[in-house]
Amino acid sequence: MISNKLLADSLPLIGAGLGDKLGVKILVGGNQACTDGRTYIQIPEFDITSKAQKDAVLGYMAHEAAHIKFNSFKGINTNNFNGKPVLHSLWNIIEDLRIENAMIDSMIGTRKWMDQIWINRKADGTRPPVTNEDNPITVLCDYMLFTCRVTYRDQQYLAEYLEVAEEAFIKVLGWKLQMKLDALIHPKLGEIKTSKQAFNLANAIFDLIENHEPDEDEPDSSDEADNSDNADSSDDTSSDDSDTNSSTETDDDGSCSNQTSTSDDGDVNPDGESDTDSQPSSDTSESADPTKHKAAIEQLKSLTSDGDAFDDMSSFVDSLAIMPQTEQTSLNVPTATTVSKHLIDDDSANELLSRVKGSSNQLTNKMQAVVEEEMRTKRRTAKSGKRLNSRVLHRVKSGDQRLFIRITEKAEIDTIVEISLDNSGSMDGDLINVAKEAQLSLALALEKLNNVSITASAFPLDHSSKGVYELKRESDSVKSLARNLSTLTASGYNTPSGTAMMHSLKTVLSSKRDRKVIMMITDGSPDGHEALPLENLVRKAERSGIIVIGIAVGSIANYKECFYEFFNHAIFIQDIADLKKEMFSVTRKILTES
Q: What PROSITE patterns does UniProt report for this protein, alphabetically (predicted)?
């Protein structure tokens, strides 16, 4: 069985797999987490030491990927945010709610990851609750943030944050503004489907604040009567895709009237006074200070610096900076490229198939013999067991306790073999031909075995220093591999073996096959900056139960110790005949050895 160790520790592989599922490019490297919000996400290769850390980092990836996948900023002129940090902050909060809910609907497993961000922050104290002493924009945004997360993202473990934020909001900004805000947002937050709808609601809240009169916060019953009289005078500031350049009258009046219609929310006592929870408690009334409320509202209105905008996810990104990073050079999983179909030479492909047919048949016979031997049920005598061997009971007289029959289990074959081919310039001439024959011969031989799947790749791309060709997927025929091999010219500029290994690891880990094997055919060492990553990746793969075998072609056979620095298991060949002899020694390791 393959251990989860590799998946748990390798952010590049995690990011590549998640990126493929979400259709977003996730890069691992650099020294800070960032995204352009349009095409890619980048995160350092942190030294993850716990599942909680891993899930939170995955949560960040999923959150930022959701912004890209679900079209944040679509239909929005970002110039609308210039000089309006309150508006920008409100949109950030509502948009985060929208894209996270959309991501969860699309990929349910991301809920756990995104939740883990907040669970970790709460547990480690990096996200303290708001206080009455915080500035008004923080108070406003915390109330909005946790209203969204607790009520509309069902993050109930954050309920205490919402309670504290509500108390701070009432004390700093006033309970009547809270009533108006609640009346405006609650009918709409659960219905936000587009980024523009999120902006429209944020803009309506912004206008509500701009037009709110702080002196209304005096606890005066006449205010309630006025609001009640005007209950039906509002327009709905819809969170649809229409523009809301000015929603002063609609948002202010509408929000007031909707909230103060108390007959739906509470009973009316015989004295005609409402028993609803919307009335401030005696403690809140006593602490209400209209002068302070007015000052706080004015401070909100006066904010014009974009640096004042509230973005709680950026605070989480800052907290990631304290996580240690791995020492090895980070490599990202390359995007696999298919060969250009117009370059395929069918005559060359058929000739290659003919050349290796005999060799592959001999390889198949040798491998099949090993498989049959391993699959055969074996019996032996043992000192303990459930069945006595009647033929050896005489051993009792001599004190020999080996009296029981023990049957060894049959070996089970359920294997994926990824064969990677070096296409660099140093492979030009005879070496690339030997390598092609070796790759195709192995693929043909292994494919004939039951429960064995083959994939194949080559690196780097022609006339390039990077990239990987995907030559054969699990579902493709070996004939398609021969056709794709006809296009390779050993014209790559470098030997990015570490990057190629990342692709191979991703390939075998994506397979449902239980046993996973990687074979890399190359003529020597990787590029200098890829040497250490290759060595680390091979060791990590082996610790995780993945078999990695290096197949060296050419003069590297004279420097075997150099090749063994990268591959613990290696064979050395000069031609296809050597492959037949050498492969016998590693067949058990590939197919059956535990």
A: VWFA
